[in-house]
Amino acid sequence: MSDTYKECLMKYCGKEPLPHCCTVLECEIESMEPDKDGGIESTYFFSIDDTEIGSISIYEEKRTVNIFGVYIEPEYRGKGYAREMMYSVLEDIIPGGRQILLQVADNNKPAFGLYTGCGFKVIDFVEMNTTQD
Q1: What is the average pLDDT across 78-89?
Q2: CA-CA distance, 20 to 23, in Å (whole number)?
Q3: What pLDDT does residue 21 have?
Q4: Domain spans in the chain, listed from the N-terminal domain onward
Q5: What is the model's pLDDT at position 8?
Q6: What is the DSSP secondary structure assignment for residue 72, as one 8-state letter?
Q7: Which of 18, 19, 36, 105 could form a disulfide with 80 if both were Cys (CB 3.0 to 4.6 A apart)?
Q8: Class of the 3-117 domain?
């Protein structure tokens, strides 16, 4: 594990890495071509021993990075892997100095706990219409 990674975790998340951090997770990144506004969407795919366990997508713009599509296979939930996946993504995007944003439904308690546990703070609530017309 890099010292930069550890420093980022302590500075931005106030957390020590979990013991299995960076020892079992492998990461592959797929990026799309920039869109008409210059934004780039990338997806991080995480695996253990060639078994994909989850993914996180980001959308990078000049001043912001939006995190979305965080998913972890059910059998790997509750074991700290989602946090390690987030830390891995944050290690890539924190040094850019851009604002990092994400959205989560307030009733998604596991995701909300993950994000607040990684140091994210609630800055706004947006009411969404989820009914289909």
Answers
A1: 89
A2: 6
A3: 46
A4: 3-117
A5: 52
A6: E
A7: 18
A8: alpha beta
